[in-house]
Amino acid sequence: MSVTHPTPTARRGRLPVDAGPPPVYTRSDTPAEPTMSQPPEPAASDDALPAAPESFATPPPSPPSALPLVGGRDRLEVVSRGPTSALMFWELTADAVARARATLGPDQPSTLVLRVYANAPGTAAPAVTDHPVDRWLGHRIVEAPAGARLTASLGMRAEASFVHIVDGTAVRLPDPVAPIEAPADRIDLGPRPAREAAR
Predict the structure, then answer these.
(1) 75-172, what's its fold?
(2) Residue 19 confidence (pLDDT) above 80
(3) According to a count of CB atoms within 10 Å of the terminal CB, is the N or C end of the chain lower?
(4) For residue 61, what is the DSSP state?
């Protein structure tokens, strides 16, 4: 008499008895490990990324506008350069010069000048100096005493009169700085001790 046994069932975490032998992987089935001669795959490039919305895109820079060399108005600026000099630059218009010449009269010869008033320290009356001007847009470096107060005007000068066109701001030149005494190159420490002298 033959005895049959029930087929064992699969337990949790185990393969059933009738699942067959485990699979066998061949050399061609297993993934190859990267070696020194086989670099890893490169990361995704920026071309693969989605395009940014137009609201986040940086707009192209606009071309720089041409800055005008003149502002179209009469002006005179005075800037201190140091204790004994100042820089003066100006801009004139044809209308202002024509009005100044008309004020003097057509028969009276006139010259366009830069008139500088320099009040040196300790003096009451300013020293007046005229510098000829032959350009509508220009500059000039003016020398003056240290610490002087400078004012300037552009205008038409005739034989006995002067017609102002534009006045500059007043500037006071700085006082000269006292020179710094140089350190002594050698300091006398007296006679050396006897022990050092014997060496």
Answers:
(1) Immunoglobulin-like (2.60.40)
(2) no
(3) N
(4) P
